[in-house]
Amino acid sequence: xxxxxxxxxxxxxxxxxxxxxxxxxxxxxxxxxxxxxxxxxxxxxxxxxxxxxxxxxxxxxxxxxxxxxxxxxxxxxxxxxxxxxxxxxxxxxxxxxxxxxxxxxxxxxxxxxxxxxxxxxxxxxxxxxxxxxxxxxxxxxxxxxxxxxxxxxxxxxxxxxxxxxxxxxxxxxxxxxxxxxxxxxxxxxxxxxxxxxxxxxxxxxxxxxxxxxxxxxxxxxxxxxxxxxxxxxxxxxxxxxxxxxxxxxxxxxxxxxxxxxxxxxxxxxxxxxxxxxxxxxxxxxxxxxxxxxxxxxxxxxxxxxxxxxxxxxxxxxxxxxxxxxxxxxxxxxxxxxxxxxxxxxxxxxxxxxxxxxxxxxxxxxxxxxxxxxxxxxxxxxxxxxxxxxxxxxxxxxxxxxxxxxxxxxxxxxxxxxxxx
Length: 420
Known about the structure:
Mean pLDDT: 92
CATH class of the largest domain: Alpha Beta
Largest sheet: 8 strands, mixed
Strand content: 15-25%
CATH architecture of the largest domain: 3-Layer(aba) Sandwich
Radius of gyration: 21 Å
Strand order of the largest sheet: 3-4-2-1-5-6-7-8
Number of helices: 16
Order of helices and strands: EHEEEHEHEHHEHEEHEHEHEHHEHEHHHH
Structural class: alpha/beta
Shape: globular
Number of domains: 2
Helix content: 40-55%
Distance between the termini: 15 Å
CATH topology of the largest domain: Rossmann fold
């Protein structure tokens, strides 16, 4: 809710420019939550981001100015080089456009990639502040995606740009304690300048979801995945787990829904056909309708986070897990460090012992499905933890405290009091 102007405290630096390369606003929920919270606290906010499927190149939403530019999403090292080679000069040009047209006092850069500090360093010479919002740890992402010579090359660049971003930042924001620890240890960041702002929806986002029998497509149970479909997201493991349940265990009473999009969606579809489970899995594609997502969540018996065990995934706080918990759904996944910390008693996690076994994941899903009482217990724990700890209303307080540190004063006292 927008605060009345009379109750806002004017911050020392009144305008913030978000630079985002890998997702558009408002589809990127984390960036959009941060932008809205800052706008409600009295900041002027501008976002520059890719266009993707949005129709307008520039628009105002909730008082936030959004500039969008066309950008291809390409695979492989060569594809990433082309994508970043296009994006960086465009972002630099838009930064100058915003500088002269609207002005800004803070550049808030969301990674990946970690190259955006190059733009920030230019404007730091003009007295602007730089916030490095580290969504992902790129060196670990390279390790999860590549090997051999490609890994050595990408890791060298990723480690260099990560350190440069951390050292250029006036403050650093991480999504969890693991990410904050990376900033402290690899970037030498002063602990007083490193903050945790978790990924979470607002309490009201999925509040109105209702179970709908037709979403089960005539089957008794619904197992639901909602998220990105990329190389680190475990959809290959999920499809193999579905084969374990449907083919090996003969469970024809379960409907599986994969909601989302990403670079790997075509090959995941092909894998489902190859393994003979395409009839059991519904691929919805990208869904923007929060009410429809909420209805799927309300209907699901079990929600799955199949991200395989890796140094990268261990550091990640998965948005989908928090969304599952917001709707009181039990979570099944592998034993990732931050996934377990996020879900706690709301999750049932498969011990990997060095390998993420899809068969074990499928068996664990069936175990949880077989105990409705356990599903309800896990769901209650998840909803309570979301409402009391994880919801964006709690995270925005940390964001505003970070900005108070950045600006050297109580920039958002009114909003902090209103959400206490």
